[in-house]
Design brief:
Keywords: Chaperone. This is Chaperone DnaJ C-terminal domain-containing protein. One of its GO terms (cellular component) is cytosol. One of its GO terms (biological process) is protein folding. Pfam families: DnaJ_C (PF01556). This protein is α/β, with parallel strands linked by helices. The protein is built from 7 helices and 15 strands. The protein has a 4-stranded mixed β-sheet with strand order 8-9-15-12. A hairpin with a 2-residue loop joins β13 and β14 (about 200-205). The longest helix has 15 residues, at about 35-50. The relative contact order is 0.12. Residues about 1-5 and about 20-50 have low confidence and may be disordered.
């Protein structure tokens, strides 16, 4: 096996490029022959400087009404970013982000805007993440893809019949006559009147109509006798 010394390598270099060229790059030649790790170290330091880290996500809550999650909506949110240049100068930038809510989105749905966070040298800006939160509704309660509405009725209405009138989340009027005896655990189930199912707008969950029956706090002897006559007790 042929062994090349540092001197032999310099001689060959001089033969091809001349003595002046040899002296001009002799420092580099010394690094090549005697300090390979030095070049590797310089490269590693360069990579470390140029490889940008990334700040953790900036998290926000996005309050949405049930109507917005039922029909979809356009929401615009103003954010303020801090941008720092390489001289250390920091300035604030305001930006409007547009979020298109989709029918069927649920509480906990996340919307990510990549690299919309604060900006500083040698770092990739953080992502801005919005998490959907559902606002309480005066009429409906949501349970997954289902909607629940509760009507408070008297015991007389529970025995003699009751008609439910509802305005849906998209503004339609619904009427449900109920002629059954409404006991405390009674509920009317209406299919395909719940929340839209994400990814298939032709399908919806169910609507559950529940009842809170108000019983009298007291009855007199005559009323008790009348109840016994009615029920044959």
């Amino acid at each position: 096996m042929t062994s090349w010394s540092s001197a032999s390598a310099d001689g060959i270099f001089t033969e091809f490029f001349g003595p002046n060229q040899n002296r001009r790059v002799s420092g580099l030649s010394g690094d090549i022959h005697g300090n390979v790790d030095g070049i590797s170290g310089i490269f590693e330091r360069s990579v470390n400087v140029n490889a940008a880290g990334k700040d953790p996500p900036i998290k926000h809550t996005l309050p949405c009404s049930l109507e917005e999650l039922y029909q979809g909506a356009t929401k615009r949110v103003k954010i303020t970013r801090q941008v720092t240049d390489r001289t250390g100068l920091t300035r604030k930038i305001e930006e409007i982000l547009t979020i298109e809510t989709k029918p069927g989105w649920k509480k906990g749905t996340k919307i990510t805007f990549e690299e919309k966070g604060n900006k500083r040298p040698n770092f990739t800006p953080a992502d801005v993440v919005f998490t959907v939160d559902e606002k309480p509704h005066s009429e409906f309660t949501r349970d997954g893809n289902d909607l629940i509405v509760t009507r408070r009725i008297s015991i007389t209405e529970a025995f003699t019949g009751y008609t439910v009138h509802l305005t849906t989340l998209d503004g339609r009027s619904l009427t449900f006559p109920i002629n059954d005896v409404i006991h405390p655990n009674y509920q009317r189930v209406v299919h395909n009147e719940g929340m839209p199912i994400l990814g298939d707008r032709t399908k919806r969950g169910i609507l559950k109509i529940k009842f809170d029956v108000r019983f009298p706090t007291s009855v007199n002897a005559e009323q008790k006798a009348g109840i016994r006559r009615i029920f044959g007790a």
